[in-house]
Amino acid sequence: MTEPITDPTTASNALARTGADLLCETLLAHGVDHCFANPGTSEMHFVAALDRQPRMRCVLGLAEGVVTGMADGYARMAERAACTLLHTGPGLANGLANLHNARRAHSPIVNIVGDHATDHLAYDAPLTSDIDSLARPMSHWVARSPSADGLGRLAATAVHEAHRPPGGIATLILAADHSWSSTAAAVPAPLPPPVPLPPDDSALAQAAAALKRGPGTVLLLAGRALRAEGLAIAARIAACTGARLLAPQANARVERGLGRVMIDRVPYVVDKALAMLKETTGLVLVGAKAPVGFFAYPGKPGSMLPAGCEVITAARPEEDGLAALHELAARVGAGSAADAAGAGADSAARPFFAARRELPLPSGALTAAAVAQAVVALLPDEAIVCDESVSSGREFFPMSWHAAPHDYLQITGGAIGLGIPLATGAAIAAPGRKVVALQADGSAMYTLQGLWTQARERLDVVTVIFSNRRYAILHGEYVQTGAGVPGANAKRLFDLEDPALDWVALARGLGVAAERTGTAERFNAVLAAALAQDQPFLIEAAI
């Protein structure tokens, strides 16, 4: 039985343990110790509960898209959920674009969305909205608080659902009166951790048969299969069978660089993707979906596969992709589960592994390719690269085979505005590792407030702005869709000039040191200096 605090605005923190305390205690007991937040009045008692829990790291984002993007970046590197704290339906709605990206990345996130007190909903106050309907399209699980006493069990379920393989978005809607009401309910014990489902034996048999048919088969990897262990096993399979290794166009996290497998992606551009896959007779999926066009284009197919290509799902995203690769390796004669993970330079898979290739620092005009070459040449060991460079960064991924070992994170759902928050969350999850954000200028404007959080949290992030002063990708898409050549009105919708964005002023105004570079030589020097320090820094690359 709960007892509401009569006047929550004046109640002392010491008067009663509240439903918000139970919620916060349960999150901590179940391994959620980071809260990315932009709170409002309905969430004040949850904020008070956070105040009583020094083990919970609270990180403020100045816009909800920053909050949800940080939670995504954190989850990808920490491999566990953080919680967000969002203010009613409009606050959640402001963060939905980056929850869409997180959903596509299978990032575990627990959203705490405050709502009015239950007896206040009838008044239809200005912030009243259908939070459930806003949450469902971007959430795998949605529930409302039943009472102060019920918040512990509900929070435990939310954390469990967020971690259900392959990872998902759990949204808990917290009524203000359940937050401020007192409770003596105990923190529930953690539920058994969810584990991936085993791959289907008949699917593995079909996949192994396809791989044995040789060069016409593509092994398409996603999820955990794109880490070093999975890639090494896949390289042995490819070396044994002649199958081709590929990754989807967009991936949550790939381990790349020297000593790791040089896997390419399906291209974004439809004509290039069709050309890459035109000889494919069989496609074996491990955690991936069959490749399709990012958009529909007049006169072009939606599927990137040739007619008659057989598609076999060896492991779905919710299944154990590593176990599937081990089993496929054994079935095609590429080694046992014991030795597959040890594949390396001395194995038959050696040609698949990146070797050092000296890349000179670029000189002369500063182009997108020069920026990519400099980053590859100077990237420190075990850096994290967060890529939302869009069309400007297409040179980086293939070139980065020869960079120092690093993790590569990218935008997964196509909703721009992820890059700066993604890098911020990744830096919080992996202190001690340098984070390099490759960021297009247009999409950076969606969530540039994340730079302020980097400054406040003293995060080791170098942001490189590809400053071409336009939505360059839209110029290309205009032509690709058959709309013709952009005229005056179209250019006014695509170009970021008159006035031009001043990224040095914007960054400094948010507390981040910055410099503009206009030549490759100056970019090299500024990047080297920025990588040598451990504070946030922004480089505007005028390309």
Could you give a short description of this structure?
By secondary structure, the protein is of the alpha/beta class. The chain has helices at 19-29, 44-51, 64-78, 88-94, 96-105, 131-135, 151-162, 176-180, 201-212, 228-241, 270-277, 321-331, 337-340, 368-378, 396-399, 419-429, 441-444, 450-457, 472-480, 488-494, 503-509, 520-532; strands at 34-38, 57-60, 82-87, 109-115, 141-144, 169-175, 217-221, 244-247, 254-256, 264-265, 282-286, 310-315, 383-388, 406-410, 435-440, 461-467, 513-517, 537-542. Residues 1-13 and 340-346 have low confidence and may be disordered.
Question: Your description of this structure?
Answer:
The chain is of the alpha/beta class and 543 residues long. The protein folds into three domains: 19-180, Rossmann fold; 201-352, Rossmann fold; 368-542, Rossmann fold, CATH 3.40.50.970. Helices cover 36% and strands 17% of the residues. It contains 22 helices and 18 strands. The strands form three sheets. A seven-stranded mixed sheet has the order 9-14-13-15-16-18-17, with helices on both faces. Strands 2-1-3-4-6-5 form a six-stranded parallel sheet, sandwiched between helices. A five-stranded parallel sheet has the order 10-8-7-11-12. Strand 7 (217-221), helix 10 (228-241) and strand 8 form a beta-alpha-beta unit. The N and C termini lie far apart (64 Å).
